[in-house]
Amino acid sequence: MLRTTATLAVLHLAAALAAAVEPVQLEPLLAETIVGTTLPLAEVQRYCEARVPTMPASQTAEEWHREADRLRQAILERVVYAGQAAAWRDLTTAVEWLDDIEGGPGYRIRRLRFEVVPGMWTAGLLYEPLELSGKVPAILNVNGHTSLGKQYPPKQIRCINQAKRGMLALNVEWVGMGQLGGDDFNHARMNQLDLCGTSGLAPFYLLLKRSLDILLELEHADPERVAVTGLSGGGWQTITISALDTRVKLSNPVAGYSSFLTRSQHLKDLGDSEQTPCDLATLVDYTHLTAMLAPRPALLTYNSKDDCCFESGYALPPLIEAATPIYRLFGHEDRLRSHVNDDPGTHNFERENREALYKMLGDFFYPGQPFDPQEIASDSEVKTAEQLAVPLPEPNAGFNSLARSLCQPLPRGPALPGEAEAARQWQQDRRQRLLEITRFKPYQATAVEHGSRAAADLDVTFWKLLMGGSWTIPAVEIASGSPQRTALLVADGGRKTAAADAARLLAQGYRVIAIDPTSIGESNPGNDLYALLVSAVGDRPLAIEAAQLAAAARWSRQARPSHPVTLVARGPRSSGVALVTAALEPEAIDRVELFDSLGSLKEMVENNWPVSRAPELFCFGLLEQFDLRHLVALVAPRPVVFHEPGDRARAELGDAPAWYRLLGSEHDPLAAP
Known about the structure:
Elements (H helix, E strand, L loop, with lengths): L4 H14 L4 H8 L7 H12 L11 H20 L4 H5 L5 E10 L2 E11 L2 E10 L6 E7 L10 H12 L3 E5 L18 H5 L6 H16 L3 E11 L1 H12 L5 E5 L5 H6 L20 H6 L6 E6 L8 H18 L6 E6 L9 H15 L19 H4 L10 H9 L12 H19 L6 E11 L2 E10 L3 E10 L4 E7 L7 H9 L2 E6 L13 H8 L4 H19 L5 E6 L1 H13 L6 E5 L6 H5 L15 H4 L2 H8 L4 E4 L3 H6 L3 H7 L11
């Protein structure tokens, strides 16, 4: 008697389930060390370091002057003011002066608040001498990573000292600190703006620019004697605004930055999102920014035993080496100075470092005049946070609220047309646009066997997949019997967490290849901040991971041309990468299955994710043109299956069956498999 096809399928499935592998059997196999912990770190370091720009050769001061101007313009246009930030830049600064605080002998403190970008306000304190005549120096004092914010005592003391010496001292609150604390201002949330195609760096920079605007509008501010100084993140702010805004005439960054090459080798120097902004290192390194201070006076202050970052021994020399020849071209080597603090030598802007600043101000803002750089005792005049509080509007916009507003009308890309031929053209055009946004570059995988093992009825092979001359990606291939199809498996927690998925796929008759692309599992270099560095040098972690999965899929198809490949992903990160992979690799991938996937990229904003939650998905401008539904449409008519889809996925993909019918398939991504 003939058996029906359905009966044969049931018998085949029953036999597979009877021989099912328990996840516990697979866990040690999937956790096998293949590349170790050192190689992924070394590879991402080499990858980034090879792409950091070197200092150009300039023969004359005029030649460097032209180059510096070109770089300033390019950085501002392509990095700082990308997207909606260009419109923010052109808005008039809203400033509100409030009541005064009694200061100390010879000065008062004026409260103010101003709007950085629409809806985001910050607080400021102007330390103003009581007796002013003519033009006097104006100093912008910025602070770093301290929850005390503008109340930080060493910052108050230097502002008081500046005012007692007849200077205007502006103390501004930094996002994420002091009165601007909280998750909405957390620096790791600025990448939500990047996702929407608007520079997350812009609020940081505009806070500095508008602070200078306010200072220079003061009646007694001397535009030829404007300085900026700050510690740590304040040092980063100092070099950034000083290099890009020539209204700054003297710069004193304190323990605040190092070359990208230095950062790559010293993990504690990698810095927050704003210090490694998207695409900055396609144009400059921090060595360039240091040289761009020339010929203006600059004092680079570092600490010899810095317990935070940027130790003087390794951070300072590359900066001096890059900037000295440029200052020499201008005939002003004497204007480039450095100061190394040994006592206490830790991360500080304490008295010795402050007195180095005072001496610098005296030498260049009061040349030939009596000027005592010794600090004027003023510890008793330090005030509490409550005394210095400046009322701010409620609600006050932060990174998340800005991103929520930006993402509402997104994506802006064209909708899928209603006719088959137009839909195919849409796929072609949008695939090209996705290539451009992600900066996808295909890799060829060369497989090197790392070892093999027979375990029960399983054949296990461990592979090193060499890709693009840059990456060594670990993979574990597991087969039971003679499977006729392949599942390429990736999971947010790495392949060692995917034993249950691997067991299920084996029971379904798949050959399983579990892979850890860069930043996942064994391939994680140990610090997610390297993803920011990859973006800074001009590539996108999303495209690198997708290219690795695509290369693995092509390798599998080349080894077994008749075996279809299903890309299986667990977790929001891996699911997003899998969709981009299948969208950009239409030949080698036949099917996509997603577990625990997002339903929309907007959920990353709505749930206020920091960049560390999914570094590769915060791809600059991705949401501006694509959401997950559009990526599914690029994969169609190949099946995409969302296992246990949530309400958001159902809302976003409700019309997906219509896309598939348009392209000749009856598939529904939300239907139970």
